[in-house]
Every structure is written in structure tokens, then in C-alpha cells.
# Entry
Amino acid sequence: MIDKLKIYQQAVSIRKKLGESDSSPIDAFNIVQNIPHFSLTLYPMGNNISGMCVKIGKDTVIAINSSMSIGRQNFSIAHELYHYYFDNNQKTIICKKDIGKGNDIEKSADQFAAYFLMPLEEEILNEKRNTITFEKVIELEQLYKVSHQAMLYRLLDEKLITAELMEQYKNNVMRTAANLGYDTSLYKPSRSEKERKTYGYYIKQTQALLEKELISDGKFEQLLLEAFRHDLVFGDESDEGELND
# Structure
């Protein structure tokens, strides 16, 4: 049995630690890049794995399945943050795709991600059960940049929808979002040029080693290529015509 109050307090504490307010939407991709000794890798991992967390001494790498939707990747990053901050018993953790299942550690990590990313306003929490419309679900997931499944999980956990209504709300998501005027990229996987990429401490450290002349130019390029950063070695065509206004 997981302790939801404790997990909620953990989520609030990490929000504050990372410089976020209690209720603002969070850009999970960007926020983790500012954590010391923390690297983020995107890599396609098939249908069953959402991500993994590897701790090596004071360094940590989390890998996220880039074949999942962008919204689900955001949720998985927050899930792995729980392992990073609070799961001290394991050095390597591989996480399955299903939300709300697995052992208590995995359930706690999902609960943490839900609280961390989706701090629902009192107006929503005070809604009567089953009065939240399908369109409102789309609005909320677009606000918090999470997958449709993650938002339904959050609302079900708060008893704002029933399991039956949750099943009804699983269809025609992207079409409805488009009809409401939203960008549908939240429901799609990473673009091909971003499906294999490393960000954060690994890149900063590699650059620092080169600047200190502790590695050669060749080793520098090798390390970047191993981290799927071909753009930093060969250049990125998207940089052409860059605007700095």
C-alpha cells in the first residue's frame, strides 16, 4: 500500500527544489537538464518499456522511450525522477509502460509523476464525479503536457471519473484535440532527428574535458557520437537561418 500523502509532499518538495511553483505546468524535458550530474537520453525502446534510471556514483542517467508520445515521455521523465530522488535501494531500474501497475515502488513513481506534473486546481478537484467532459480532459492534458492516458489516470485516482467513463474517453483523442484547436504533437512520438539524443550533464562534461585539454578532438567527437549528438559533431541543418530576435 503506497502512502499518497507522503508522495504528494515529495512531489511538492521536488517542485520547490527545482524552482517551480506549487501549481504551474512543468516542462519536464528542460527542467531535468539543470539537475547536477544528471543526463537524459531519448532512445526508442519498443512497446513495453517506458524508461530506465541508472545511478553510477554521484552521476545519474535516465533513458526515456522516444517511441512513446511526447506527453507520455514527459510523464516517464517525472516517473524516473522519483527513482532518482527517493528510490535508494536500486542502482538500475527498468520501468514498464503500464501506468499504475507493478510493485509499490513503481506505483509510487507513477503517483509521484501524477502529482508532480498535474497539480490540479481546486476548481477541478471540487467537480462532481463524472461531470468532467472529454473536451475538459483534452484541455487539462494540453495544459500540463502529459499523455491522455496519464491525465485519465490522474482523474480516476482523484475519483473525478469512473473506470467506465475512462474507457469511453479513450477514443478519438487526436481528432478531438485538433478540432479544439490544439497542436497534436503531444500525442505523437519524437521526430526522427530527436528519437536518439542525449542532453544534460554528459554533454556539458564532455565539453569541459575538451576545454581542459583532458581529451583530444577525436575523443571529444567519439563521445558525442556515442551520445547520439551527431548535430554537435557535423552541424545541424536546422541551425541555418537561425533568428535571435
In short: The chain has a mean pLDDT of 92. The chain is about 45% helix and 10% strand. The radius of gyration is 19 Å. The beta strands are 38-43, 49-56, 59-65, 92-96, 197-200.
